[in-house]
Amino acid sequence: MRISHPFEPVYNINSTILILGSFPSIKSREINFYYGHPQNRFWKILELIYNEKIENNIESRKNFLLKHNIALWDTIKECDIVSSSDSSIKNAIPNDINMIIKNSNIKSIFCNGNTSYKLFMKYFKGKFKDITIACLPSSSPANAKFSLQELTNIWSNKFKNSNLL
């Protein structure tokens, strides 16, 4: 099924970290915001890294991101996708990542999972000089290889190594 990305990125001029997913899941599309599946560990990871509770509503999540200078978007603007399966993504059109880069203070781009990273590299490799680009293990519940604590440690270390914590 051909789907266009249904919601806007979260960022402002102070954003220093850009976290990119691949494309919103069905649950995220239903609630019209990022990482909407209750089993996705994205919000739990950020709570643990910053030692701060995030209320389960869009406004609180946006405020948390902006407070911590985090921009959030997805690599893909439009694609053919089956259900929420990243492995089914075909005929992808990328988002205009440059829009965020030009209107913020991004120092690091972290791709949430291999699919986001591979697609980012396909469309943007070499385009953002002086910006650290790294792949983080996916926060998806499908990524059972890592526990919540392992994910949090890896993500936290990447943020610290980029001097962003």
Short description:
The chain is an alpha/beta fold and 165 residues long. The chain has helices at residues 26-31, 42-50, 58-67, 97-102, 114-124, 148-161; strands spanning 2-4, 17-21, 70-74, 76-80, 90-94, 108-112, 132-136. It has one domain: Uracil-DNA glycosylase-like domain (Uracil-DNA Glycosylase, subunit E, 3-Layer(aba) Sandwich).
**Number of helical elements:** 6
Please compute the radius of gyration using only Cα atoms. Answer: 15 Å
Instruction: Tell me what portion of residues adopts beta-strand conformation.
Output: 15-25%
Instruction: Supply the CATH superfamily name.
Output: Uracil-DNA glycosylase-like domain
Q: Please state the overall shape, judged from the principal axes of the Cα atoms.
A: globular
SS class: alpha/beta
| Estimated helix fraction | 25-40%
Instruction: Give the end-to-end Cα distance, rounded to a whole number of Å.
Output: 39 Å
Identify the strand order in the major beta sheet: 3-2-6-7
By CATH reckoning, the class would read: Alpha Beta
Q: What name is given to the CATH topology?
A: Uracil-DNA Glycosylase, subunit E
Average the pLDDT over all residues and give the rounded result. 94
| Secondary structure tally: strands | 7
Number of domains: 1
